[in-house]
Amino acid sequence: MTKNTSRAQPLDARARNARRRHLRVAMLAAIFSLFALYIAWYEAHGPSTQRNDELPITQARADDASHAVNGAALPATSVGSDLVKRGEYLARVGDCVACHTADKARPFAGGLPINTPFGTIVTPNITPDPDTGIGQWSDADFLRAMHEGIGKGGERLYPAFPYAEYTKVTDQDVLAIRAYLNTLTPIHYAPPGNSLNFPFNQRWLMVFWNLFNFTEGRFVPDPKQSAELNRGAYLVQGLAHCEECHTPRNFTQGLKSSARFSGAVQAGWHAYNITSDKNSGVGNWSDDELVSYLSTGAAPGRANAAGPMAEVVTDSTQYLTREDLRSIVAYLRAVPPISGGESRPRDQWGNPADDVTALRGTAVHAVNGAQLFVANCASCHGWTGQGVGASAPGAYPSLIHNSAAGASDANNLAMVILYGVTRTTKQADVLMPAFANQLTDDQVAAITNYVTKQFGNPQSTVTADQVGILRTQQ
């Protein structure tokens, strides 16, 4: 009897544990089912109009579509023209053309593939074509897409479209953009479909992404701050969606709110820290230098825009009014500093080189960074690395006190060598040739490491294997 009882006790314990596990699973399933039913009910019966908590935003002079001059009402045609002009300006602020143009012969017709960890998303046609564009969208459809991330057919949009920022934009500004898009030439073009892995191709799952990463609602000015700073916050947090590149992401690919504007890597390029930290960010830049960088792509002695940022300057920020640029700078000054661990600002490194003297008459048999620099780079940047043209708009920039050479990682420098620089502004056409087809990974790594050691941060290096990976990122 004793023997049988001793065997029964463990069996009873295992049975009780099994029942507990089944009960826990059943409870979790019930909770999930109730949550799913709530989401389904809310989607079907929730409020059709979301809260509109927008307050007046100080408008820049150039994009203020005033409906009267000296107290006299303007003709309807003039009002419409002003609205379209304002919408064009705001579309520039949002840099809509960058993502919605794959072929420059078909502006705003979409088709640009955007690679994500979950697959490839292809941007849609936003010209007023009725069949392949947004010609049949109502103003309410357009507002819903911008503010809630929901398409005309009720489908959830993917956050490659930054509705998490656009939700802050006022109805008036969204409708001004809509008015401008209506004036574009309709282009009949249906971009390819997305290529996303299961389950990420299930749009309804965006409900859960939104729960963690999205808060619908318009921008509310801070009454304790100046009108200028509030205008800057409205632009940076909303249409300009600067966080999309300059903020690292969490495991769901949403923005990491605890590290806003502290820098992130996008397609191989490092979008630098733009907080007010004096070493890692732009805290030691003057207001004029920041304005110059945004309007021309260059702040001599600091940085020269390349890669995606050069495109932002070309397509967007160079067109902003002086008032709006100053407002953006005022807001960036107020962003709390976040240290990236740098010991000194990335634009405060480097000394002129004299390696060319040592190379004269010397046979070089291996991959040599100094030799490769003199052969490929010195004709524009000077063999001392001090550049040509000083601070002129079309100058060949100095590599000394240059943020790409002084950064804590060498990604951007290597990417510039691989893919060059193309930046067109009202001041100059800037072009640096790409060397991806002329130089091997070993050679690109050797030049990069020579430049960082001589002119920049000597602790920043790159390997040939890393260059090979960067080749695939563009």
TrEMBL record:
Gene Ontology cellular-component terms listed: plasma membrane
Binding residue positions for heme c 1: C96, C99, H100
UniProt main location, coarse: membrane
Superkingdom field: Bacteria
Binding locations of heme c 3: C377, C380, H381
GO MF annotations in UniProt: electron transfer activity; gluconate 2-dehydrogenase (acceptor) activity; heme binding; iron ion binding
Name of one Pfam family that matches: Cytochrom_C
EC number(s) per entry: 1.1.99.3
Transmembrane segments: 21-41
Subcellular location: Cell membrane
Binding site for heme c 2: C242, C245, H246
Domain Cytochrome c stretches: 82-185, 227-336, 364-455
Cofactor binding mode and count: Binds 3 heme c groups covalently per subunit.
Keywords from the named record: Cell membrane, Electron transport, Heme, Iron, Membrane, Metal-binding, Oxidoreductase, Repeat, Signal, Transmembrane, Transmembrane helix, Transport
Family matches, as InterPro entries: Cyt_c-like_dom, Cyt_c-like_dom_sf, Cyt_C_IC, Cytochrome_c-type_DH, Membr-bd_ADH_cyt_c
Cofactor(s) recorded in Swiss-Prot or TrEMBL: heme c
Official protein name in the record: Gluconate 2-dehydrogenase (Acceptor)
Organism this protein belongs to: Paraburkholderia phytofirmans (strain DSM 17436 / LMG 22146 / PsJN) (Burkholderia phytofirmans)
